[in-house]
Every structure is written in C-alpha cells, then in structure tokens.
C-alpha cells in the first residue's frame, strides 16, 4: 500500500515537472515590445519553422540591427543541430537562418 502511494506521488511530481518545463520552453522574452510588432509571435513561429523545421527551444522578441530593427529570434533544434532563425517583427521577412554559433546567448 505504501509503495503504491509513493509510486503515485512520484508520477504526480514528474507530471508537474514536465508541464512546467514545457511552459518555460514557450515563454519568450521581449513581450513588452509586442505592441510594436506587426507580425504576431504565432505568425513568426510559422515563418521560422518553414525556414527550418524542428522543435523551437527558445524564442524572444528583441531589438537588433538589420531589417526594421525589431525581430523574433528562435532557436530551432533538429536532431543534434540547433539553428538560429530570425524573423522581422514588422515585415515577416526572414533575416537569419544559420547554425547556432559557439557563443550562443
């Protein structure tokens, strides 16, 4: 009886951990800039995943040189390769699509 209770507790804790991890994977920084973007985060995800299919592991909205100066940046993992994909937040234009460098953020 005690073993069954411990097993159920372990399963519950693992479930909470996995749900929390999934939420953190899709939280993005730069939300305060979203009102300046003409392209939504969801639209930018579609553009980025068309450019490099895989699993988005990090995403942010940031000011950066190039394009309109406001971009969504995504890290997209496919196999062992992580690709950096940048989408202009005002035009939807693809700004970057390159393997992640050795000094990743």
Q: Which whole number gives the mean pLDDT?
A: 81
Tell me the distance between the termini.
Answer: 48 Å
Give the oligomeric state: single chain
Helical content band? 25-40%
Based on CA inertia axes, which overall geometry fits? globular
Largest sheet: 4 strands, antiparallel
Neighbour order of strands in the largest sheet = 1-2-3-4
Rg calc = 18 Å
Instruction: Identify the CATH architecture of the domain at 28-99.
Output: Roll
Q: Give the DSSP E fraction (strand runs of 2 or more residues).
A: 25-35%
N to C succession of SSEs: HHEEEE
Helical run tally: 2
Structural class: alpha+beta
How does this structure look, described?
The protein has 105 residues and is an alpha+beta fold. It has a domain at 28-99: Nuclear Transport Factor 2, Chain: A. The protein is 34% helix and 30% strand. The protein is built from two helices and four strands. It has a four-stranded antiparallel β-sheet with strand order 1-2-3-4, with helices on one face. A hairpin with a 6-residue loop joins β1 and β2. The radius of gyration is 18 Å and the shape is globular. Mean pLDDT is 81; it is low at 12-26.
